[in-house]
């Protein structure tokens, strides 16, 4: 892609091409390339080859799981009913996706407009994380086609999972709405965008509520198994707080991680605003994450003191626990604080990667590794389970990249400048499939001061 | 921010509160166990490990052939747990003791306030008035949360089935016997009368009576009388229960009481958050009008003409 831009390719960042003509949907989908150019750049990218290899092995196995059952694909253990799909896919993806509601809150509620260059990335990160957590869940459920049952067929409202199901479902739709404004810009449907703009505050507030509740609820799920989760990872009064609070730095650091990767591997896609403001925004996010981590470490220690669990620290489990806390939380806290003060971005980013690792490790520890700590054997996920998990994760990467390449997430969709060049009176039909809802240009100016 | 938007935010908040209230209303109905509940008393001092109960269960519940026959003693080498193919198993403990080994029959204990029931998000479980905890496989989604929750690791999952995997566990022969007042198959077949079927309340009296009559024979505890809120299956043992693979760390509170902290918090969040954050939003907005530059460049649609 970089090479092609050097050779004078214009990046798609407005409804019009270089000659001022409207771009068709196909041209937008192909990033303004001809089909052969598009294929060429796809073939040149080594990541695509790796992904292709993963899919070649993974997709048949994923399909096999639905034909031969869970016992064929996973450890299918009665003692460890939740394996990698949930332990990693659901429990780790969800906290890393708390970014959407946090930046939504910061920008829309607290008025931190300086964070806006990253807001859409955070929203998208949230949406995709949740979406793929649900995909992992579908792979894990014994009868995935019954997933809507808790909504329509039979209710178990005293169950925490019932809350999780409802909240994740509602929150997914909230996030779809939030991200859709970028999609409406891209597809050229300003009316839709305006509609979303009007309900943004409502969406954001419901996002905060739903996130608090289901991030916490994922933790509360383990309060059903008081003796099974190792006491160092368990606290009947604070479990939901531990999960909720650690999801905050988890989500922020995930955005730092993704934005770093995006800036490195698809620099052409970000506009100057994104690249110029990225360091500043990263510092703000890191500061927030540091607050979160500090709080998390504190309440974790309070929980240990509250139930007087110090003795457990002096055991193999205790060392593993210390490893998680130190490498996953304390060290990144130190690194990020230092990095923020000295403006050493590499160190800040390093800290953010480690936090992401720490949060994932914490969830995997709670759901799988320390689960049933009293039983003599530990469950090692069989290879098919690992391959399926990888395949779903690879799909996540592909979808993530597909959207970042196209929708105005890392760059602004240039409407304004173009408008000035288009004569006022000429009605501009909405392109592509939205032909019917043609909107006169004048409406853009009436959209000002919406909020 | 326009007043309309604020009202809308409040409205959304209000609806969610209403939803939360109903949630709470359902959740708070805690289940105490039925007074007429039946149960089984297992006297481990009488059990000889013949595994006839396993065989009877297999036949009654039409379970698949076991891998080894029911009189193969090699199964005692490892601890087993109930699975989807065997709702009950007998394990051997205290193998090296001079007093001889102790056998323990394991199955679903039919809790008074079952963790499986309260954790299931489609309400697949029912505690019947006869005391059995039964299960509706028609609605099960297969999340296996009940297996996570069960403190006795009783439910097994049909991992082998691709099209209709379901949770399987002892149902106290509810469909075929209990409903008609008959004892479960395992109780009926036991040659040693190690298993006694009756009203749970009577069985507790009987158990304490046995302990009182022959205190040398038993430790002074009836397992299941109080554990996790009480279970329909009760156990007597000659040695400490921890030596027989029982979890003696369980509290007397039902499992759901661990979760109540969180469930109680839900309506709080639902009612406080909307007002709190809408309020903060208003505060922040006013500030901006006082001159703290709203980054006009940051959102093209906010740009003033
Ligand atoms: S023993 Fe387990 S499966 Fe049986 S009723 Fe109690 S919680 Fe449910
Ligand atoms: S039939 Fe009775 S004696 Fe034999 S193993 Fe079962 S409970 Fe024990």
From TrEMBL, chain A:
Its main location: membrane. The keyword Transmembrane applies. Keywords: Cell membrane, Membrane, Transmembrane, Transmembrane helix. It is a multi-pass membrane protein. It is found in: Cell membrane. Residues 424-451 are annotated as: Disordered. It comes from the Bacteria. The chain crosses the membrane at residues 47-68, 80-101, 121-139, 199-225, 240-263, 284-305, 317-340, 352-374, 386-404. The keyword Nuclease does not apply. This is Polysulfide reductase. It comes from Geomonas subterranea.
Automatic annotation (TrEMBL), chain B:
InterPro entries: 4Fe4S_Fe-S-bd, 4Fe4S_Fe_S_CS, FDH_Electron_Transfer_Unit, Formate_DH_Fe-S_su. Residues 38-67, 131-160 form the 4Fe-4S ferredoxin-type domain. Keywords: 4Fe-4S, Iron, Iron-sulfur, Metal-binding, Repeat. It is found in: Cell envelope. The keyword Disulfide bond does not apply. PANTHER family: FORMATE DEHYDROGENASE, NITRATE-INDUCIBLE, IRON-SULFUR SUBUNIT, IRON-SULFUR PROTEIN. This is 4Fe-4S dicluster domain-containing protein. It comes from Geomonas subterranea. The lineage of its organism: Bacteria, Pseudomonadati, Thermodesulfobacteriota, Desulfuromonadia, Geobacterales.
